[in-house]
Amino acid sequence: MAEGVRIGVDVGGTFTDVVAWDPAGRMESCKVPTTPANPAEGVLNGIAALAPRTGPWATLAHGTTMVTNAIVEHRGAPVGFITTRGFRDVLEIGRMSRLHLYRLDLPTKAEPLVPRRLRREVTERVAPDGTVLTRLHLEEIGSIVEDFKREGIESVAVCLLHAYAAPAHEQALRLALEGHFPHVSVSSAINAEFREYERSCTTVLNASVMPLAARYLDDLSRRTGGKPLHLLHSAGGMMSVEAAKARPLSMAMSGPAGGVAAAAHTARSLGLARALAFDMGGTTTDVCLIADGVPETAGQRKLGDYPARLPMIAVESIGAGGGSIARVEATGALKVGPRSAGAVPGPASYGQGGTEPTVSDANLLLGYLNPERVYGGSIRLDTARAESVIAPVAARFGLTLIEAAHGVVEVANANMLRALRLVSVQRGYDLREFSLIAYGGAGPLHAGALALQAGISSVIVPAHSGAFSALGCLVSPLRYDTVQTHRGRLDAWDAKVVEERFRALEAQCLRPLLDEGHDPARMLVLRSLDFRYVGQNYELEVGWVPGGPAVLKAAFEARHRQLYGYATGENVECVNLRVTARAVEEPLSLPAPPAGTSAVSTGSHRAYFKETGAVDMARYDRTSLPPGSAVAGPAMVEDEWSTTVVYPGQRCVADRLGNLVIEVGGRT
Amino acid sequence: MSAALSPVTIEVVRNGLYAIAEEMSVIVMRSARSPLLKEAGDLSSALTDAQGRLIAQGRDIPIHMGVMGFTVKEFLKRVPAETLRDGDVWFLNLPEVGGNHLPDVKAVRPDFFEGRLVAYAIKLAHWADIGGALPASNVPWATECYQEGLRIAPIRLFSKDGPERHALDFVLSNLRGRDEREGDIFAQFAANDVAGRRLHELFAHYGAQTVAACFERLHDESEEQMRAALRALPDGAWEGEDFLDDDGVEDRRIRVKVRVEKRGDEATFDFTGTDAQALGPVNTTYYIACSGVYYAMKALVAPEAPPNEGCYRPLRVVVPPGTVLSADPDRPVVGGNHETSQRVVDAIIKALAQVIPDRVQAGGPTTAGLLILGARMADGRWAVYYEVHGGGEGATVGKDGASAIRVHMSNVMNTPVEVVESEYPLMVEELALRPGSGGDGRHRGGLGFRRAYRVLGPDVTLTTMIERRIVPPYGLFGGKDAAPFRITLNPGTPRERDIRGKETMKLAQGDLVLIETCGGGGYGDPSERPAALRKADRREGYVA
User: Distance between CA atoms of A530 and A512, rounded to whole angstroms?
Assistant: First the structure.
């Protein structure tokens, strides 16, 4: 990678965060408003704002929620869809199941991604083993092209049956269509995996965001004068502009991937074998498992109500955040979320029109937020307003205000605990081995209490958490992934064929790295396989181990036992081959933020903990904490971006890298 | 426990219980072998208190809602609680012991805390084969339950020392595909085992008394929700009836009749007038009648009420002896589970349409639409392809029905064409919507679909278990009935013939089986359908 100043950018819904890093280890960051009409404006504004401090920049790495938002808000381009004769309705038939079991009033299934008149068929047929049963009748596309043009289609998706096994027909169609349409996505290039509905949806979703991504990326490239530009993809790696334009759907999880990538960097720099990224914002909380410094990825998830199959970080997202609204149901049950006061009107204590009790209001009453501080430049928290919205909850149950506030926080924490367990305990891991890496506006406030409940022994509040997602772009390696369906039983394993297929996939993944001039000696290539017992319908991804089928089977059975608690010794079959290639780089050395010489309390206020009742809680400025010295809970550590609560019995130490490390101890 | 803190504790314990039931479902769904367990599969998970009263259910299909509430209670009548030990997992499938049909095997695990029995975990899973006369254990011509497979009275297959090898071997020796079934059994065991560990953590954290108090509160809350929903309806009595096409043995329709009487915050569902038990396999149990009632009331009046014993307390179900809903234990039942249960729902919908017209849905594919293609492979094993076929959803006051969907009591997914063709000697030549199959109306019913299977190998057997082939899905309030199912062998050739809804037959290599599934009924007078919607229907080709 080129020498010089590197820029990392995260384009979020409200703010665009920009971080600049130079090889001398200096770092600068800023936040500017996002410019939704053309996000490139915001990116350039941010870079320009930093320029006086950093000088000219050399490379730009970029994460964005643009693709996700376009899909969720149905702003993708209309797509024309072409498939094998007899199967155009696969997109509407789907998997035949309904979304809600007991709701006759709600929509039963998602609208088809492409309306029926824009779903067209060509005569051709391939068997599962790739044999051509009926040749492709390419001459049939003339009228389809005409109809699509009349409908104003710019982007076409092609998904033919069994194209994962024999892509030739799709390739021929691509060649023919590229002369007529600026954007063509074919399934064998986007997602060469079996199961036609899921592959069709993935291909169509990709096609729908291609025009938007191309316009944005072309504009950004032009306005940055052709300097090296990379995009953060969903699996937590960087990719080239060309790759992003061809497969923009890979940016679908780019937003949360930034924070998770930065958390993984923190885990690596501290040598943590097991960590959980815990990003708690105003409306949602995202959690992700990080094992040996690598975020866990999954091959499929839902975007809106549609399946998308591309490697993505395995983030579990729940509707619980600082703005989550507490309500008492008619039956007397206390619920928190998923409805949120969001940024507007925000919690009642923000004084911007919120009238319902939120988690933040409860936190304020408990003293877990600083009542004297100005948040976000202009917001002074209003305790009286918080009291007025929590009071009805208290009255309903005959509780004091403080008891009711504890109740709201405890229910919110229980929701988050369920998400933490989902990505760890339910995948066969023991939470006691984990550290919790907490970021996002509310993460460092709740982390200590959650860790205690979950039996997690330490919490890390990472340095630079104010622009964590942008930082994630700087520390992510270039990485390309591919998958190919390959069906074969381990008791009839043809190692030679598998080796050939793996080599072909490796070449495919390495090509973009070589094209960018990376040294072949400094690339890491990883193989994995999706296995299952014969007869199962779900696969487990297992890392490649040399030594033949018996060794592979043992690896599968170990993973099966870890996840499901048993293994049976039955026959195992392979379903997919996967390859990941990434550039190996020196880890970026991040500067430690400024540290003080002695921890001096900046004040104190009343706080309420279940264990201690009312206590005086001292506040500390994070930048005043010298490395190594400990602050004992109850205490509050504040920085520009977040508030960390150190609960009674916990100890908080600033380490040399500027991370806060909380030793949780206590009960499990 | 401080009484003042109870809303928080209840909420947290509730969360914990649902998480456990959900985790049980995920383990079996992802790791079991049976093709029916895939995705939102044919399985259910539940937790009961020490008396066997249902307290929480996981991701389920509604058929099992009533069943799970009875399984443990009936099990305890056969196996006294004091004989149970920590670590036991008992298996059973008898319809008369809180059951439905033989392929749905329940695993019951008693859970102990500090030496006392405090709860049960139950895992129900549909095994792809339970023995009997035909592969996949679906025998459309059966006249006795003994032809339908192995009847498992409660038997202990695991103890704290591990699997009971002799008992396991006995079960596995009586069904096809013993390796796969062993996988299913271990998946059910693993789910129960996890539930046991999680329950133990919950009890250890909150104490046995607190958790027991929470159980009571959960029952009471659900009961109150159902009662409130019932209070909101006017008092009265309404009748509805619906018909099975036939029972597979005798060629006559079979009536399911209900009288719903609602007074204050309670309701009685009296099935007097329902036809006598059938010769063929459409009989079912009182528990399935309850499932139909519970589903219908949850969907129609109280969709948010958490399903547990309390939820059902205000609902009384009366079934006279000897009807198709209360057949003698030796009668065949395999289709009663997923066919007759849907007739129960349709009869209730027709009764309640008179009082809550804005909440009901017109008739739809209330059938499994089941085709089983069994192929004897060269190595002597059976490759059994088991596929359910949905159709068009019925319309409602607010919307057209969705196309190609499952409705009401079941929600099992389809099998991708690329999977069918990779694993069975079959080729799918067409999968397409069936234009014009939806009933017309102010709101139109959804469309059924066409799916055509070409047989590529020798020695293939076809079995059907399908309703709504003769009695079409009904329209409501002037809406038209939908096109019924139609199954055709070798359409458009001299060898063309209709295939019946409950039939078993040999197929020849090269044969084509075309299934055209039913649409959904329309809702409201067709003359009130807006012109714009008619135009869109024509533009997209949804009408013939």
Answer: 25
